[in-house]
Amino acid sequence: MATYVPRVLVCGSVEEFRKKIGDKPVEIVGQIIFKMTGSDVKLFFCERALTADDIKNLLDGAAEYLIFTDALDFYYYCRKFPLNRQVMTAETFTKKIHGGFFATEILILLETLLEAKNFSRVLDFDAFFAESDFRTPTKDFHVAVDCLAEKIYPIMEHVYGKIYRSFGECKFHHFDALILAKERTPAEFIDVLIKTDALTENIWAFVRKNSALEKFLAANENIFAKVERFKAVNGGWCQIKKITPPADVGVYVVTHKDAKLETLPAGYKFIHAGHALAKKDFDYTGDDSGDNISALNPFLDEVTALYWIWKNTRHTHAGLVHYRRFFTLDEQKTFDAEKILSAAEILKILREYDIIVKAEGFTDYSQRDMMIRSTGQPNLIHLAEKIIRGHLNRTQPDYLDAFDDVLSGITLFPYGMFIARRNIFDAYCEWLFSFIIDSTEEIRDKIQIGDKTLVEMGHDYSRVVGFFAERLLTVWLMKNHLRIKELPAIYREGV
């Protein structure tokens, strides 16, 4: 991170000032001479007596702070000249000015700007609000601000809606805007934009006057959709709107038969899972083109379609539902295609939440025991669990505790149905397929019940990995900081 080097005017001895601030980085742009005759106080710069306006102009141009090495001189200055919070003693400067610039007025301006934009939730990426002197929300400020900060005073919980202790806690969330306030070189600024790309389309960056970042943004406005500037003390706020692709919802309806549904809502597409082995073709998109694992469908069910979507599409919002089950906003007693969750409703929900899942379900037995009950083969479930857990331990050991908890628990987000923004969709798939394919192949090749292989036993048994895979979405959600939206499903009968 670039080091903030404040520009200061020193009133008093420069040598004494250096001693007081120690190794604090600073650029001394000039020396002010203090003179007092009787009760009359005068400040001189380059042998010229300064008026209040002169001081204000200097602190809005050449310098950011006027620092007094003698506290008594500061006292007499305050008696004659108007209030200016950029003027302070060396002691205050040493202890207070560490966040990059004069925070209070700049924060008030930012609050005004955010209110005017009608943002509902903002992420303070650099804990800028915490650098100010406010300990409670300022009056009439109604924007919810979250914060990313490893260490912060507990009282700041009054200011922030939520405090994330690491980037991992918020990396899948979406915000109306991101506040970047620390000193950054252009390269560091671009690195942050890349790191946080999925978080927001809007950046509010404080850019110091005459800084390298200011020059970079002036020369490269064309790489952004829009750049607006708002003048502040010794710099200004830049609202940067990034160039983003238009929203493209792709929800795939997984089927292995003729789904007999004439129309689907915009953004929905049928996908034929296990198309590579299918005896009939229904003129749906198959999961056997491009990069695919369609041949593993007898063992993985709809997961082969999920893999195909991950590897062969680039929708900004992607998801998977079933030919007999669709998300809907409200409980429906009978199927009505018009009640299927629309693309517009999906986009609205995923502005506030990170993922849409089927409402959490409760079972009469643990998830492990439910699979035993479904197959009547406890040894099969035991062996499959051991193999899957072994591959999980090899590639994703941090998830072992969640894996064990879900299998031993009575709740899950069922059916493997979900819709999410693309970065979340990809993250889940990257996690899942880091171990599930290897697990499937080992289970396929090694497990026998009696003298029969899984394939010889039929689909009710070969699909054992699919049973586990349905539970794995819950395992992944257990370990990630996502804002989950639960929705009911609308069911089609007789298909």
Descriptive overview:
It is a single chain. With 495 residues, the protein is an alpha/beta fold. It has three domains: 7-96, no CATH class; 103-241, Vaccinia Virus protein VP39 (Rossmann fold); 249-491, no CATH class. It has 19 helices and 26 strands. A seven-stranded mixed β-sheet has the order 9-8-7-10-11-13-12, sandwiched between helices. α14 (400-408) crosses α19 (464-479). The chain is elongated, with a radius of gyration of 31 Å. 38% of the residues are buried. The mean pLDDT is 94.
Question: In a nutshell, what does this entry contain?
Answer:
The chain is of the alpha/beta class and 495 residues long.
How much β-strand is present in the residues?
15-25%
Largest β sheet strand count, sense and barrel closure: 7 strands, mixed
Using only CA atoms, what is the Rg?
Answer: 31 Å
Structural class estimated from helices and strands: alpha/beta
Question: Topology of this protein?
Answer:
Elements lengths: L6 E5 L2 H8 L5 E11 L2 E6 L2 E2 L2 H7 L6 E4 L2 H10 L6 E3 H7 L6 H14 L4 E4 L3 H4 L12 E5 L14 E2 L12 E4 L5 H10 L6 E7 L3 H8 L6 E7 L2 E7 L7 E7 L12 E5 L12 E2 L10 H4 L2 H10 L4 E6 L2 E3 L15 H10 L2 E4 L2 E2 L4 H9 L2 H18 L4 H9 L2 E2 L5 E4 H11 L3 H11 L1 E2 L2 E2 H4 L1 H4 L1 H16 L4 E4 L1 E3 L4
Helix pairs in contact: 13-16, 14-19
